[in-house]
Each structure stands twice: as structure tokens, then as C-alpha cells.
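<instruction>
Derive C-alpha cells from the sequence
<data>
Labelled lines for chain and fold
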Amino acid sequence: QVQVAESGGGLVQPGGSLRLTCTASGSITSINAMGWYRQTPAKRRELVAHITSFGATDYGDSVKGRFTISMNSAKNTVDLQMNDLQPEDTAVYYCLYYPTIWGQGTQVTVSS
């Protein structure tokens, strides 16, 4: 069985940066893809970014050019570097080990 855990959330001022890390553990034979999603009480869970084991990436429109996803297959981790954060980026960020294993989420708050 595979588990994932997120870390790196917190409070940051507008224009600031944060780096989130998702670590997969357990019965991992190979990673096909992992991704980051986010959710607020007012919105459905939405794609932030995902990455395949081949390095192919995809981003939500609202984060393109500001966020970067990367994978370290040797460590079974996926990082999300978030730059130029804005208040609308405030959400709980969830890691997904495709296709169906979710982490518990980590809060990101962007506020002055």
C-alpha cells in the first residue's frame, strides 16, 4: 500500500514564494505520475500541476509561469515551487499519487 504526505505549507505575503514537497512511501514499484491539486471552501478541487515519470508536465492556467513541478524518482518525491504567490492562491494543497491516492493536504495562506 502506498501513502503520500505533504509538507511545506504556511503563511506568506503576496509576491512571496513557498516550496511544497510530497513524499510517497510504502509499496512503490514505480511512479507513473504525481500531481498537486488545491481546494477552497468556495471551489471544487482543481489541478495545480502534474508530472509523469517521463518528465511531462501540465499546469492549471492560473499558475502557469509562476509554479514549477519537479520529481525526484530516486526519493519518491514531487516538489512544487510556487513563486509570486497571490491571495487567490490561498487553499489547501493536496498531493495525488495517480490514480487515486491522496495526501491529507497542507494549508497555504497568502496574506499581508
About this structure: The first strand starts at residue 2 and ends at 7. The chain has a mean pLDDT of 95. The CA atoms of residues 66 and 100 lie 26 Å apart.
